[in-house]
Structures are given as structure tokens and as C-alpha cells.
Amino acid sequence: MALTTFVILVITVLLLAYLVAALLYPEKF
């Protein structure tokens, strides 16, 4: 797997995790 593909995958997962956390705990954001 290419390094750029891995980086994009990690960034996507982090963004999704942040969005889920913001939806579950809106009072913290």
C-alpha cells in the first residue's frame, strides 16, 4: 500500500472519529 494512501486513510478515520464524538458529546465542542 502506498504511503499517501495510508496517510489519507488515517486522516479520514480521524475526521470520522471527530465527527462521531461531536455528535455524541456536543457539549464538549
From TrEMBL:
An example Gene Ontology molecular-function term: P-type potassium transmembrane transporter activity
Sorted UniProt keywords: Hydrolase, Membrane, Transmembrane, Transmembrane helix
Keyword Hydrolase listed: yes
Residue ranges of coiled coil: none
Listed EC numbers: 3.6.3.12
Source species, domain of life: Bacteria
Major enzyme class: hydrolase
Annotated InterPro entries: KdpF
Membrane-crossing segments per the record: 6-25
One Gene Ontology CC term in the entry: plasma membrane
Keyword Transmembrane helix recorded: yes
Stored NCBIfam families: potass_kdpF
Protein name per its UniProtKB record: K(+)-transporting ATPase subunit F
Organism: Paracidobacterium acidisoli
